[in-house]
Amino acid sequence: MLQKNGSVLILLFFMESIIIKEVKSRSDIRAFIKFPNRLFKDVPTYIPPLMSDELSLLTEKNPSLDHCDLKTWLAYRGKEIVGRVAGIINYSVNERWNKKAVRFGWFDFIEDYDVFTKLLDTVVAWGKEKGMTEIEGPFGFTDMDKECWVIEGFDQRQNISTLYNPKYYIDFIERAGYEIPCQWAQYQIYASQPIPDKVARINELIMKKYNLRLLKFKSRKEVYPYARKFFYTINAAFKDLYDFVPLTEKEINVYIKEYFPFINLDFACFVVDKDDNLVAFGLSIPDLNEAYKKANGHLFPFGWYHILKALRKFKDIDLLLNGVHPEWQKRGVHSIYYASMNTNAIKYNVQWAYSNPQIIGNEAQRIWDTTYESSPMMKRAIFKKAI
């Protein structure tokens, strides 16, 4: 009888109409942020983001709103939230790439195609009102935000800077007729493997030939003079990547405050030329997955403690960002910072390194297939459709 009654309740739940409501209040935005924590509470690979980080992105604090429009919606069935989505129009991206695209992001939903469709249709309708002719995602505001869904390797380890999604997300978006314009790959690398002799010799020759040096930082004060150079090099190095748009000065100021107080000096690998110009970089962070899970979205009362502890004692690392200035690409310079991170991984007895998503086919991605002992973990993709 209980089972029968339970089945009836489930049937009634799915018979209720789906209502889409725009996020308006402070309580709405908190419910928007918390929804995936409830949806994926039993998924071991899901990592709850920090509430403070999400609020900084989805409210007026975000400097990207100087050149972006943002709308956020929640899907309700009765009184229960069953999905969420953000619509973003990045006018700088559209101008640079000569397109009229509305982005979808922060897109999560129960396993119900009607919920998926109504949320996405809401973004499409808003995009059309704004004169857009295509929709693509999942994207954030900039390439520093989480983007792209997993299409292979759904059960693999995530990290704090990537999106989690179950397979039904891909089933639904393919069913809706979306196409894939770009794919990314992520790798697991044995971090303490010896640096190949050939790599070490070539790196030494490259540094001598081009008069390059690898910076060694003894204090955080020594890093900050290179912080702005770091983001300027990102702007140059990533300029031809899919949908990339250079970070603004206001965005750079925010990212310096967010990232640089927490970096491990040994895993900030900066290569400079004779004039002290930053020509290449590799930035890694300790694995914070378990710390973020324990924090469960909140720094207080004890989230900060778990994160601080993980920053000091770790066995794995995430390869957060790496790149080479265009004037120095195709000269093997990327191998210098990878070898440096490899050396420091051995020093710290790090077991595994995990790459962030890298566009398939670029120089940074190919090194894992050709030089180091590594294994592919997952593939990710962006989806798009004309509207």
Describe the protein's architecture and organization:
- With 387 residues, the protein is an alpha+beta fold.
- The chain has two domains: 17-184, Aminopeptidase; 188-378, Gcn5-related N-acetyltransferase (GNAT) (Aminopeptidase, 3-Layer(aba) Sandwich), CATH 3.40.630.
- The chain contains 14 helices and 14 strands.
- It has helices at residues 2-15, 26-39, 51-58, 91-96, 113-129, 167-175, 197-210, 220-223, 227-237, 249-259, 289-295, 303-312, 334-347, 363-370, and strands at 18-22, 68-77, 80-90, 101-109, 134-137, 149-152, 179-190, 213-214, 268-272, 278-286, 316-324, 352-355, 358-359, 374-386.
- Strands 1, 2, 3, 4, 5, 6, 7, 8, 9, 10, 11, 12, 13 and 14 form a 14-stranded mixed β-sheet that branches.
- A hairpin with a 2-residue loop joins strand 2 (68-77) and strand 3 (80-90).
- The protein starts with a helix and ends with a strand.
- The mean pLDDT is 93.
CATH architecture of the largest domain: 3-Layer(aba) Sandwich
State the share of residues found in helices, binned by percent: 25-40%
CATH names the topology of the largest domain as Aminopeptidase
Number of domains: 2
Could you name the CATH homologous superfamily of the largest domain? Gcn5-related N-acetyltransferase (GNAT)
The beta-strand count equals 14
Distance between the termini: 48 Å
User: Could you tell me the strand content as a percent range?
Assistant: 25-35%
Task: Indicate the structural class.
Answer: alpha+beta
Q: Strand-and-helix sequence, N→C?
A: HEHHEEHEHEEHEHEHHHEEHHEHEEHE
Q: Please give the radius of gyration in angstroms.
A: 22 Å
Q: Give the class-level CATH name of the largest domain.
A: Alpha Beta
Number of helices: 14
Average of the residue pLDDT scores: 93
Task: Give unreliable regions as ranges.
Answer: none
